[in-house]
Write a structure and sequence with these properties.
Bound molecules: uracil
Order of helices and strands: HHHHEHEHHEHHEHEEHHHHHEEHEEEHEE
Largest sheet: 4 strands, mixed
Strand content: 5-15%
Distance between the termini: 38 Å
């Protein structure tokens, strides 16, 4: 192999890397010939200089080839997955996988852990007692065939290079990078064997892409690379200008998802944006997979399967099939939250006009709900339950959020950050749309 430092220098100096060079570098990361500090230097060089489309395709292929690729052709039905580019309070996958499956799709879902300030589906699922997120290939395929969806983390065998780079990016400031996000997402999706993909490209204060222009570039790159690698896909550009739904944190987001799946109204939460986005993404999946002729027809089917309890039943079956304790989800209050409960209250009256959603994600990490370095373990029980969303009227001393913590020591500093992150203004400001644009592969 060419020397790793030579490849790093070439990237640093904005020279296009050949496919063979990128592939050798990724193989070296796996074999240990490329040290973690060299992998990190390469990530940082890529962060600053970017990649051409050819390089991004080669990186995606290299990461895909680092492990096995599942062949799901023996499982009947269209296989359609959804992946989000990362946000705060984004628990859509937990509701969407069983819902899409209840509508007739097969959903092979391979997800990640928290990345940077954003949450990860795998961390959330691990707050369900007993639930196994490390499925072998055989188990993943058998759960998919029998239940209609399966949710797993990467194993050492499937896109292991992404697993390694993902955790390095998480703690080295190299997350917000279009080619790295593209290769990370698409290598996993190609490896899991899905036939179609719907992408939820987040934009706004809590997304990796803060502007519409940057999010559009990410969506276009994802679609171009997917096209080159023969994976039909669509992308929606959706708002991450406030947490999705009301809950932020691992266990508490599972509770909120259960409430939607069970069709419970105004128990702990009453999310409309979360349910709406889930329905829209499901409608896209159903249309892309050929179950519905139009998006509107797909949406109707999704609404029906949510309302008649079929999606909830699939979720119970999924939890059971993956070793989880169904009694914990049937009574979701059995999924424990952290013992210290405090409210952070408005310091003035007015309207919630802006949220620095990335900062809210960092507050969760500060509570122990995310990782600051690779070896950190997380506390699934900590979290935030919002009482107010953007546009809401608020009185002085009215609670904006209830916080669940295990340690009171850091709470004053975190509360100060929270008040900077959540702006209250005298006049009501318009709330950004939930879905801005959509892109289809041509
Ligand atoms: N999701 C992923 O799987 N990878 C990223 O880089 C971002 C979101």
């Amino acid at each position: 192999m060419v020397s790793p430092s030579w490849i790093i220098q070439k990237k640093r100096d904005c020279q296009e890397l050949k496919s063979s060079e990128l592939k050798a570098f990724i193989r070296g990361i796996q074999s240990g010939d490329v040290a973690d500090y060299q992998a990190t230097a390469f990530l940082m060089a890529t962060y600053f200089t970017g990649m051409t489309l050819n390089e991004t395709v080669a990186l995606t292929e290299a990461m895909l080839e680092s492990g096995e690729r599942y062949d799901l052709s023996h499982i009947s039905g269209p296989k359609v997955d959804k992946h989000s580019t990362g946000g705060v309070g984004d628990k859509v996958s937990l509701i969407l996988a069983p819902l899409a499956s209840a509508c007739g799709l097969k959903v092979p879902m391979m997800s990640g852990r928290g990345l940077g300030h954003s949450g990860g589906t795998i961390d959330k699922l691990e707050s369900i007692p007993g639930f196994n997120v490390n499925l072998s290939s055989e188990k993943f395929q058998s759960v998919l065939a029998h239940i209609g969806c399966a949710m797993t983390a990467q194993t050492e065998k499937i896109a292991p290079a992404d697993k390694k780079l993902y955790s390095l990016r998480d703690v080295t400031g190299t997350v917000e990078c279009i080619p790295l996000i593209t290769a990370s997402i698409l290598s996993k999706k190609l490896a899991e064997g899905t036939e179609f993909l719907v992408l939820d490209v987040k934009v706004g204060s809590g997304a990796f892409m803060k502007t519409r222009g940057a999010a559009r570039n990410l969506a276009k790159t994802l679609i171009q690379v997917a096209k080159k690698l023969n994976l039909p896909c669509r992308a929606l550009l959706t708002s991450m200008n406030q947490p999705l739904g009301y809950a932020v944190g691992n266990a508490i987001e599972v509770r909120e998802s259960i409430e939607i799946l069970k069709n419970e109204k105004n128990e702990e939460f009453s999310s409309t944006d979360l349910k709406e986005l889930t329905l829209q993404l499901c409608a896209q999946m159903l249309n892309l997979g050929g179950i519905s002729r139009t998006i509107a027809e797909g949406r109707k089917l999704a609404q029906l399967r949510l309302a008649d309890g079929s999606a909830w039943q699939v979720f119970i079956d999924l939890i059971q099939a993956q070793g989880g304790d169904p009694s914990a989800i049937i009574d979701s209050k059995k999924i424990p939250l952290a013992p210290i409960e405090v409210q952070w209250k408005a310091k003035k009256r007015g309207f919630i006009s802006r949220m620095d959603t990335e900062e809210i994600g960092k507050i969760l990490i500060g509570l122990g709900g995310g990782r600051k370095k690779l070896s950190d373990s997380i506390d699934h029980r900590v979290g935030l339950a919002f009482h107010k969303k953007l546009g809401a009227k608020i009185q002085i001393d009215e609670p904006i959020v209830t916080v669940f913590a295990t340690d009171s020591q850091d709470l004053p500093a975190l509360e100060a950050s929270f008040h900077t992150a959540v702006e209250i203004s005298r006049a009501r400001k318009s709330v950004p749309k939930l879905v801005f644009e959509n892109y289809t592969m041509r």
